[in-house]
Design goal:
The chain has 341 residues and is of the alpha/beta class. The chain has helices spanning 37-55, 83-91, 95-112, 128-140, 218-228, 242-257, 288-293, 298-305, 318-340, and strands at 2-5, 10-13, 21-26, 59-64, 144-147, 150-153, 191-196, 212-214, 232-238, 262-268, 271-273, 276-277, 314-316. It has a four-stranded parallel beta sheet, sandwiched between helices. The chain has a four-stranded antiparallel beta sheet with strand order 5-6-7-8, covered by helices on one side. A three-stranded mixed beta sheet has the order 12-11-13. Helix 5 crosses helix 6 (242-257) and helix 8 (298-305) crosses helix 9 (318-340).
């Protein structure tokens, strides 16, 4: 199998680092809301790669994380609200109940789309120790620093920063991904490994730097290396994760190990609806469960996705989906005829 590697900008053959099993990590769902079809197209990519490798007789180990620590709506300041906290306020459930509800919904949707279960679904909340240990290593190696309970990765300490996404330090401007620039940072592009918890934050943990919570990127570095080792073969995700999430993940993983951890970075294209990226913020999301409500087999969406190259943007329409649903029926009838013959 050959895949386009976003790190090298080349199509490369997938070769297992250990000579036996391809090890693959996929960024999984953030479980404070339902996943939509755009998310599911991305998750389908890992399933497609694993199935194709197995078809060739290649062993595969696939790990997909579950982000259940929430995400900041604004990375700056102690009063920044976490999306898990917002979900708790909206639904009246405890944080772990919110996470369990949406994790179960995600797995049910994945089953409906024929996405086979990953070998492991590590949850971020179960790996706080691994995250704080990795943060400690980065501080000891001079790649991170602590300021008043916040720990930041020093991007200037990692010469390869920007190689994956093309967003090198000379191209980044202050405030490029935040509402304001945190004055306690050495460089405006430095990113959080650990954040001090504000007074109203529900999800918080003890650490060597005080009570707080992990940064978004450190969880994937900690969990991917725990379950797949310090060298693994394929990392998948949506195109929107290339920067800053994967750029920062690559920087902290490679800085901690002193070598390239991931061999091939693979991205799925956006799913568009009426010319716009499908996203909750745009109010144009569709869930897997809505397909059945409209009388469409969810596998018709899988078939629709296979009509577009995985790296390309894909336009979604109900008309195209209904056409694939009819095609799916014909395929099933043909298989039934062959079986009888």
């Amino acid at each position: 199998m050959r895949l386009y590697n976003s790190l090298t900008r080349r199509v490369e053959e997938v070769r297992p680092a250990d000579g036996h099993t391809v090890r693959m990590y996929s960024c999984g769902p953030t479980v404070y809301r339902y996943a939509h079809l755009g998310n599911m197209r991305t998750f389908m990519l890992g399933d497609l790669i694993r199935r194709a490798l197995r078809f060739e007789g290649q062993g595969v180990r696939w790990v997909m994380n579950i982000t259940d620590v929430g995400h900041m709506t604004d990375d700056v300041g102690e009063e920044a609200r976490d999306r898990m906290d917002i979900a708790v306020a909206d639904e009246g459930l405890a944080p772990l109940e919110i996470a369990a509800k949406y994790t179960a919904a995600f797995l049910e949707d994945a089953d409906a789309l024929g996405i086979e279960r990953a070998d492991q679904y590590p949850r971020a909340t179960d790996h706080i120790v691994e995250m704080t240990e990795l943060t400690r290593i980065l501080i000891e190696k001079g790649h991170a620093y602590e300021v008043d309970g916040n720990v930041y990765f020093d991007v200037s300490s990692f010469p390869g920063y920007g190689t994956l996404s093309g967003n090198t330090l000379d191209k980044l401007q202050p405030g490029h991904r935040q509402l304001e620039t945190d004055p306690s940072k050495r460089h405006h592009a430095d990113f959080a490994l650990w954040k001090r918890a504000g007074a109203n934050r529900l999800m918080r943990w003890d650490s060597p730097w005080g009570e707080g919570f992990p940064g978004w990127h450190i969880e994937c570095s900690a969990m991917s290396m725990k379950y797949l080792g310090e060298r693994f073969d394929v990392h998948t995700g949506g195109a929107d994760l290339k920067f800053p999430h994967h750029e920062d993940e690559r920087a902290q993983s490679d800085a901690a190990t002193d070598h390239e951890v991931v061999s091939i970075w693979v991205y799925g294209g956006f799913l568009q609806f009426s010319g716009q990226k499908m996203a909750k913020s745009k109010g144009n999301i569709t869930r897997v469960t809505e397909l059945a409500e409209q009388g469409v087999d969810p596998l018709a969406f899988r078939l629709l996705c296979f009509g577009t190259r995985y790296r390309s943007e894909m336009d979604f329409s109900w008309e195209a989906l209904e056409a694939e649903d009819r095609r799916l029926t014909r395929l099933r009838q043909r298989m039934a005829d062959w079986k009888d013959a």
